Amino acid sequence: MVRRVAVGVVVTLVLLAIVLAVGVTSVVRRPFAQRGGTLALPGLSAPVTVRRDEQGVPQLYASDADDLFTAQGFVHAQDRFFEMDLRRHVTAGRLSELVGSSATALDTDKAVRTLGWRRVAESELPLLAPRTRRYLQDYANGVNAYLESRSPSQIAVEYAVLGLGEAAVRIEPWTPVDSLAWLKAMAWDLKSNYADEVTRARLSATLPVARINQLYPPYPADVRAPIVAARPPGVATDAPGGATVAAVASDVPPAVLDVSRSAAGARALALAQQGLDAVPALLGRGSDVGSNSWVVAGDRTTTGKPLLANDPHLSPSVPGIWYQMGLHCTTVGDACPFDVAGFTFSGFPGVVIGHNARVAWGFTNLPSDVTDLYLERVVAGRVERDGAYEPLVTRPEVIKVRGGADVTITVRSTRHGPIVSDVLDDVRAAGRQLVVDGTPDSVTYDVALSWTALTPGRTADAVFALDLSADWAQFRAAAEQFEVPAQNLVYADVDGTIGYQAPGVVPVREGFDGRWPVPGWLSAYDWKGRVPFARLPTEVDPPDGIIVAANQAVTAGTGPFLTTDWDFGYRSQRIRDLLQHDPARKLSPADMARFQLDTTNGMARTLVPVLLRTRLGPRDAFTEEARDLLKGWDLTQPPDSAAAAYYNAVWRNLLRLGFDDELGPGLAADGGGRWSEVVTLLLARPGDPWWDNRATPGLVETRNEIVRQAMVSARIELTKALGKDPARWQWGRLHRLTLEHPVLGGDTVPAPVRALVNRGPYDLGGGSAIVDATGWTASKGYAVDRVPSMRMVVDLADLDRSRWVNLTGASGHPGDAHYADQTQAWAQGRTYAWPFSPAAVTAATDDVLRLTPG
User: Fold this and answer.
1) 12-21, 106-115, 650-659, 733-742 — which is least confidently predicted?
2) 176-189 and 65-91 are packed helices; what angle lies between their axes, rounded to 10 degrees?
3) What percent of the chain clears pLDDT 70, i.e. is strictly above it?
4) Are strands 339-344 and 58-62 parallel, antiparallel or unpaired?
5) First and final C-alpha spacing in the chain
6) What is the largest CA-CA distance in the chain?
7) Which residue in 234, 416, 468, 622 has the most C-beta neighbors within 10 A?
């Protein structure tokens, strides 16, 4: 979930007047985008036409590629510049410069400066293809043309609010590096298992490794199909150095246990987790951050051509993460080769997910393990390595605070990466005494992070190559450049080909599998290169005509080693079951949209029978009345379901009673797919120690007692929250989504401001590990904190029949008609027409803006 920024704003009568007069005053309306008429745009070589539909979604038409991306930068800035500016401040570790004095912002800046996102982006720019660098500069030119001659309050109302009571907000020109730095934030949120890695190590201080491993079971490939069912012909199945799935060691390094069980090591790991948690989650964080995607071949569809569906699951926010847009050359050719539409990131040129005239593609997160935590032994500014010592690399970072004093930190790094255990606390944790060069000194334990995204790469090249791909070969060539974050790419084209490709930089490990931190002082644990792209899993035109990629395991034990920490396949298998339910029946575009809204709870299929046969107290009619809701329940979770409300309350209490007593603060069960698998296995072991609640000394609980207590506690909880009559309970009254502005949406801002910028609450169905993935965190409550951030269905038989919907709307300006005009449709499972051809776009046009050379 996005860390809310606590903004230090001095609220004045002027501010209150602004908010109370919303919709009337020029302060709120002044930044709204001009959508019609003519505007001069310096830098254009010829006019560009911007057509917007009823939802304000723009389709851009230009005769020159440079003009096209200049106009894209201008239009993004019109609608979303504050979002863009917030993102670049966050990704540069300069949030305090924007929002002023705030402990949250300062912690964010410390964490991001330690990781050095901006420094890596600066190193990436000269590595990119000349074409990419030119388009990035074109885009920046368009943004800056919008900013020129506009004051901050004319650009966004947020600047008017932030500028009250402190130093004025200063807006800097946009640069290509500002765009590239956003890719680092995307890579951070979509990386894999560092949190699980540090959690395992921290738990090892109090639990045997065997019990910890119960909380991380293997992927059940025998019951939930991986993405690629069999080895693709001609593709190697092992990574360089012999690091195949079967060959990778799974035991925790003994030295790691020694360190994590020491006071100094435990403290270093806890500080590392705090430091990493301070990094903002702009796209999301948690077990349900993933996505659904699938593609169906034409011989299985009513249209005779492939159908492709995608809905990325990310954190909710307003404005939403995505911006819909079309980028069209009036004459497609060498000078202007683009004809593409889909979902873009404001702040970055091109289309990230969508389709062009021949090819459609979707993304889901490939949770390959691209990070490792290295325990480091440091003595007097030097780090141990194979019995010798080498110097740490240090650099000062000055964090400027708007309206406050500068803060200086020192970032330390080893050859493995930045040290993350002193992000928020620079007091070293003493480990043991050691004599170095004849002088006694204290050894400290620190934690360094290795992450593939800290090496400069070419992902920006991949975005434009995807937009221009015309067939499977070109698409794979584009995917090879998509280095971080690693993603599952699904593909379909107008000729009928469907495919899957796993891209990304994946490190090669020898003798360990990345599940635990490893000793940085032993070079044997260093990475041994990267998996060649040719060895990454791929598949084209499978015999059954279906590809489903929903964060589950990619292969069933073959292929290069990617990770052990997959999503456990409840969503992916349900999608596959829906697609294959009746092999003789052709699937329609409407079926694809309907399947995206499926709320069947796969875990309930296992747990409900246990609940129904567990004996309650002899006179517990109170709980029995609630449990009766589960009799005959179809296991779906629409917002009005009483059974779903009770089931999820039981599930939450079951996790609390069964696990939280031993996991401790900050490590509690979140209730996602992994926990469903854990509980499924433990249900077959009624006497397992995990069922015993250590908070009840003198008693040893078994499965049946914990299940009984969970049902009783759930009945009491919902009676207080929803009333005495279980028949009147509704899942949606617990499971609510509130869209909060990332800066002005929190409790530190007056209620009138929050009313201006926030939206909701919305009562939702769905849930965690469900196709309609409205995720919630069981340790915190039932509120929705991960969502399908958009939904799309692409019809390759007629692209104009494709459908899409965004979480909020095109505009980032509170009070604008398109600020959140798609949210109600999104919440109800409806979509909008997605016109693509010139005729369809013209027919759907509500507003036309003509941008002319300035």
Assistant:
1) 12-21
2) 60
3) 91
4) unpaired
5) 42
6) 83
7) 416
Both tokens of 311, joined, read 């809905």
Is the pLDDT at 44 greater than 90? The verdict is: yes
Amino acid in the structure at residue 532? P
Question: Is residue 622 exposed (0-12), middle (13-18) or buried (19+ Cβ within 10 Å)?
Answer: middle
With bands split at pLDDT 50, 70 and 90, how would you rate the model's confidence at 268?
Answer: confident
Q: What angle do CA 74, 79, 85 make, to 5 degrees?
A: 80
The closest alpha carbon to 778, from 647, 618, 669, 617, belongs to: 669
Whether 538 and 502 have beta carbons less than 8 Å apart is answered as yes
In DSSP terms, 744 is beta-bridged to none
Cα 767 from Cα 672, distance rounded (Å)? 9
Per-position b or e across 572-594, b if 16+ CB within 10 A of its CB: bbbbbebbeeeeeeebebebbbe
Element at 752 (helix H, strand E): helix 751-757
Q: How is residue 446 written in tokens? A: 């620190």
Whether the per-residue pLDDT at 675 is higher than 60: the answer is yes
Q: Write out the two tokens for 812.
A: 């980032």
Please give the model's pTM, rounded to 2 decimal places. 0.93
Q: What is the rounded (10 degree) CA torsion for 485, 491, 493, 498?
A: 160
What is the distance between the alpha carbons of residues 354 and 249, in angstroms, rounded to a whole number? 40
72 neighbors 351 (Cβ within 8 angstroms):
no
Report yes or no: 767 and 775 within 8 Å, Cβ to Cβ.
yes
Residues 6+ apart with CB under 8 A from 610: 683, 707
Cβ atoms within 10 Å, residue 668: 17
Q: Within 13 Å and on the Cβ side, how many CA atoms surround 426?
A: 9
Mean pLDDT, residues 77-89: 97
Residue 385 confidence class, pLDDT cut points 50, 70, 90: very high
In order, the DSSP letters of 630-697 are GTT--S---TT-HHHHHHHHHHHHHHHHHHHHHH-TT-----SHHHHHHHHHHHT-TT-GGGS-TTST
Ramachandran assignment for 436, one of left (phi > 0), alpha (psi -120 to 50 degrees), beta (any other): beta
3-class state of residue 549 by DSSP: coil
417: phi then psi, degrees, rounded to nearest 5: 145, -175
Nearest Cα residue to 20 out of 803, 756, 797: 756
Beta strand pairing status for 371-379 and 518-519? parallel
Locate all alpha helices (DSSP H) within 441-569, ordered by sequence. Answer: 459-468, 472-480
Q: What single string gives the DSSP state of each residue in 156-173?
A: -HHHHHHTSSSSPP-PPP
Is it the case that residue 593 has pLDDT exceeding 90?
yes
Q: 377 in helix, strand or coil?
A: strand
Q: Does residue 237 register a pLDDT over 50?
A: no
Q: Are 643 and 729 in contact (CB under 8 A)?
A: no
Which residues make Cβ contacts (< 8 Å) with residue 825, sequence separation at least 6? 805, 831, 832
Strand partners, 714: none
Task: Write down the pLDDT at residue 371.
Answer: 92
Of 634, 653, 641, 596, residue with least CA distance to 774: 596
Please, which pLDDT band fits residue 25 given cuts at 50, 70 and 90? low
| DSSP letter string, 67-107 | HHHHHHHHHHHHHHHHHHHHHHHHHTT-HHHHH-S-HHHHH
> CA 405, 406, 412, 416 torsion: positive or negative?
positive
Report, as an integer, the average pLDDT of 686-703: 93
Instruction: Determine the Cα–Cα distance for residues 811 and 573; give it in Å rounded to an integer.
Output: 36
